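Task 17 of the worksheet. Students: predict the tertiary structure of the chain below and write it out as structure tokens. Keep your answer in the requested format; marks are given for formatting as well as content.
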Amino acid sequence: VWSAARKRYSPDEKRSVAEWERNFALLFRKGKSGAREDDCVLMGCNQWLNPVVTHTEILSGVGLAGSRSFCCGEPYYRAGMLDRAEEIFRRSASLLSSCRARRLVVFCPACFNMFANVYPKLLGKGPGVELVSLPRWLLTRIKSGKIRLRRKLGMKAWLQKNCHCAPLGEGFHDDVREILSAAGVRVEETKGGGFRCCGLGAGASRQSAADCFGHVAKYLRELPVRDVVSYCNGCVVTLGFAELIPLAGFRVFHLMDVVSMAAGGTPVRKHASRGALLLAAEPAVFASALVSSGFVYLTRAFRRDERVPRRIGFHAQTLHL
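Model answer:
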């Protein structure tokens, strides 16, 4: 999926990731001489799916750094490959300790959880640099006036929490809610709490894109609103597929999109097209998912008094709706 995304980068995205690599090399260059830089935003691997999420004036003048060779170790840790995860943890912690920024703003919530919570527990020490989550950094800049929110958006949205929501804690999510409130977004809640898998995990057990998007379709049917906001780029890209469902009217936003719009900007959103890449290897499944999902929403629109079919078969697999 990452390779497919890179092939579809716009010229601006290509320039962005090249700049991330250059900044990364400077940020972690060997030697301690010279003044330390100001805040720098560290990009995780999920940001390479759609670098355009950073193309906003609210990041103007802020250094962004990332490298395709850098891994926080989360995929190995999640998969239970603890020996390999510990090896990556130690290497990454050593690299982070040489960071030349005064403070590292961690764009990816999974990376932030690894650095702030998992590394200290497993390695007995932190990464050796001051860390701040993206929501806390954005909220601080909004309160200080460095980011001016010029308008209220008047939206109602579901807040999509990612896999790391529990260890990230309520303080993290309070920051997100405060940002959304300041931007004029009312967060809708449903009974049972706010966490639901975006679908990426649902497709992991059988390595099935159909399982993934079957879960997405079911997930979206149960939401009380048609706008979804998340701070996790993986969730945004996975759920972005929903924008392609005929007549469903779903919109999926990254937290950065919301802040950018409230600040008077017009973010470039490629969540839907990048989400579709998850099914690029199974084009028949992709086409059938669109048709099947569209059929369900048409059925709901015109025949609300009848039960919506729970399963629609396609391409030798089943889309669970």
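Marker's comment: The longest strand covers residues 155-160. The radius of gyration is 20 Å.
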